[in-house]
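In response to reviewer comment 3 from the previous cycle, which asked for concrete evidence that the modeling workflow produces usable outputs, we include below a single protein chain processed end to end. The sequence was submitted unchanged, and the resulting structure tokens are shown without manual editing.
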Amino acid sequence: MKAPAYFLAVFYAATALATSSAAYAAQCEKQSPAHRLALVELYTSEGCNSCPPADRWLRQIDTRNAADRDIVPLALHVDYWDSLGWRDVFSQHIFTERQEQLSRLGTTRFSYTPEVFVSGREFRNWRSESEFRSAMKAINSKPAAADIRLAWTPAADGRVKIDAEFSPAGASSASASQAYVAVYENRLSNKIAAGENNGATLQHDYVVRQWKGPIHLDGKTVVMDVFKLPPGRDGKRADTGNLGVAAFVQDSSTGEVLQALALPAC
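The workflow returned the following structure tokens.
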């Protein structure tokens, strides 16, 4: 007996929907690997005329390519340039505090821009491709000292629900660990009208727009939060295709990054 065409159509539609939902779920969730990913933090400002080359350098990192897939790049715009001729619309004071914290934990005596940290340590030779790749290889060869799982779910009213799960790996000490979660945005552009970069149009990728942490970790820790998408330059809602979420676990006593992970928005 043949099934009526109507029921066949419903069956095929339901099957397609289930397949689509499964693919969507897989795309919106990611688990960190057994090896360590390298967190690259660039501290920068639109008011600093030596920063655009560093911004262009960070933009060249393409995590979709095999050579860069084990790198988690973030651009954090500090606010101590804002009173020197141009206010950076992407700056946040919490990034200045983060840079100062890393400086205290490391060997640097002061903060400056552009400054690059790799897995919690200042990295001055970022202009050298060979030295940068060597540093990435050294970090990626280490076993992960923490596990991270990220999930990204669009919510109503221009918001996204982010689930981040952190747990220790190997012999790491959860009591000395802190976690951070960041929403970043790509393909940003800004025409500078004053200050050292007056007249220039600057391009930015991996710009941190929302930041949560430090989060104290005690064994397995689950963090659930809803982030409001940042508005675009024209006042409209940001394009979710340019957004992503990153998370990392850091040893609070040394600043060493134990694991990092990034998940582009669905």
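The chain has one domain: 31-264. We consider this sufficient to address the reviewer's concern, and the full set will be provided in the supplementary archive.
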